[in-house]
TrEMBL record:
<keyword id="KW-0732">Signal</keyword>
<feature type="domain" description="ShKT">
    <location>
        <begin position="330"/>
        <end position="367"/>
    </location>
</feature>
<dbReference type="Pfam" id="PF01549">
    <property type="entry name" value="ShK"/>
</dbReference>
<feature type="region of interest" description="Disordered">
    <location>
        <begin position="129"/>
        <end position="156"/>
    </location>
</feature>
<feature type="signal peptide">
    <location>
        <begin position="1"/>
        <end position="20"/>
    </location>
</feature>
<dbReference type="InterPro" id="IPR003582">
    <property type="entry name" value="ShKT_dom"/>
</dbReference>
<feature type="domain" description="ShKT">
    <location>
        <begin position="168"/>
        <end position="206"/>
    </location>
</feature>
<protein>
    <recommendedName>
        <fullName>ShKT domain-containing protein</fullName>
    </recommendedName>
</protein>
Length: 441
């Protein structure tokens, strides 16, 4: 009985010790889980860095790597320098025989260097003598060639004189054409076609002086005709009569390259790089490059539309000349004022909507219009009902047919029979446009 009681007590003690050990194990596990969870949460927090912090870390790492590299390079150079010094000093510590050997080697090096120097001088002199001979022969050849060129040049001048230059004259009187141009007849859709025919010079379709004017011929004989052209009491008259000599010609009324570019024009007429119409598009900053004092003194010249001086001042002082806000208000690009009307007449407001939106919004009356419907364009819509047609024959429109490169194409007719064209129109328009007859809608 006592033995049974002893065994029972022993089992109880063992069970308690096991339970205590389990409790300790569970406690340790709990602590480990808490530590891991806190570590994980910390890791999550650490990973949610902003791009600025990441960039900063990268920059610091690069700086550290660069510094380490420089230090390693510096250490290597230092070791190399120390080694060189030791090598130079080594003969002093060695025997007299080693010192003599070093002297003999240096003497041999000196002799080799002098021989090399003499050879370079000799080769240089020989080269100069050869160049002198070649120069003489070249001069003789050039003289012969110039004789031939003069003969060819005379012939070319005679041929050019034989070719008549296109006539750039107003059929009406100069004053009448000037009045028509001043009143906007050159760019008005109702009158431009006829006016451009009879007033080519005044409408600046071409650039030329009035051939009948003796004043223009006299101006050409001056070394600096602009000194007369820009006088206050001659400016207005010569602007009409001697347009070319006085450099009053506007730029040719054709599309500038930036209009044809992917992202259109910047405020100064340069090509935008990334997007149309914002200052974040790779366009230059709009500021006065000439300085405040300079720009204020020449501010009246900002309005000179047809003079070289006016163009230069507008380029140097865009802020003073109020050229920076072209895309912030409803206004045409100042450099394209003479072009916008012609482009509008050619249908560019519709066919080149994005470019005209940011270059000629006022002329096209599209200041507050974000997109354009193909129905409102000159030639209407293509057969798909979305693409803008660029010509009456629709030759520029994409062909409408099933996508034969897709495995769906062979099932198009079956899908049409099950009316999938209506239930999944986007999918069918992409792969079975011809079978669904989307082109005619």
């Amino acid at each position: 009985m006592k033995f049974a009681g002893f065994i029972f007590c022993l089992l109880v003690i063992c069970a308690n010790s096991v339970l205590m050990k389990d409790d300790q194990d569970f406690k340790i596990l709990d602590e480990m889980e808490n530590a891991l969870s806190s570590k994980n949460s910390k890791t999550v927090i650490d990973t949610t860095l902003s791009f600025e912090d990441i960039d900063k870390m990268i920059y610091e790492q690069l700086t550290k790597e660069k510094t380490d590299k420089q230090e390693e390079s510096s250490k290597a150079e230092g070791l190399k320098m120390v080694q060189q010094i030791l090598n130079d000093e080594l003969p002093q510590k060695n025997s007299q025989q080693d010192v003599q050997a070093v002297k003999e080697k240096r003497k041999a090096d000196d002799i080799e260097y002098i021989a090399k120097l003499f050879k370079e001088v000799f080769d240089s002199q020989k080269k100069e003598d050869g160049q002198a001979v070649e120069k003489k022969e070249y001069g003789q050849a050039v003289e012969k060639q110039e004789d031939g060129v003069e003969t060819v040049g005379k012939k070319e001048k005679e041929d050019e004189a034989a070719v008549e230059e296109p006539v750039c004259e107003d059929e009406l009187s100069t004053q009448d054409c000037y009045d028509l141009a001043y009143n906007g007849s050159c760019t008005d859709p109702k009158t431009s076609k006829q006016t451009l025919k009879v007033c080519k010079r005044s409408c600046r379709v071409c650039c030329a002086d009035n051939e009948k004017s003796q004043t223009c011929k006299l101006l050409k004989t001056l070394r600096n005709p602009m000194s007369i052209c820009q006088m206050a009491n001659t400016h207005e008259r010569l602007r009409i009569t001697c347009t070319k000599t006085c450099q009053y010609c506007a730029k040719a009324m054709t599309e500038v390259p930036c209009i044809r570019s992917k992202y259109g024009c910047c405020w100064d007429g340069s090509i935008a790089q990334f997007h149309i119409g914002t200052m974040e598009d790779g366009c230059p900053a709009c500021r006065d490059y000439g300085g405040e004092k300079f720009c204020k003194s020449f501010q009246p010249d900002c309005k000179e539309r047809y003079t070289l001086k006016g163009e230069q001042i507008r380029a140097l002082c865009p802020m003073t000349c109020q050229r920076c806000g072209v895309f912030k208000k409803c206004a045409d690009n100042p450099r394209l004022q003479d072009t916008c009307g012609l482009l509008r007449n050619d249908g560019a407001c519709q066919s080149m909507f994005n470019a005209m939106k940011y270059n000629c919004p006022k002329t096209c009356n599209i200041c507050h219009k974000a997109t354009i419907d193909c129905k409102d364009t000159r030639f209407g819509c293509c057969e798909n009902g979305k693409t803008i047609a660029k010509d009456p024959s629709n030759s520029s429109c994409p062909e409408c047919h099933d996508d034969i490169t897709s495995p769906v194409a062979k099932h198009c007719k079956r899908l049409v029979a099950h009316r999938v064209c209506k239930t999944h129109s986007a999918f069918m328009r992409k792969y079975c446009g011809g079978s669904c007859k989307f082109c005619t809608k």
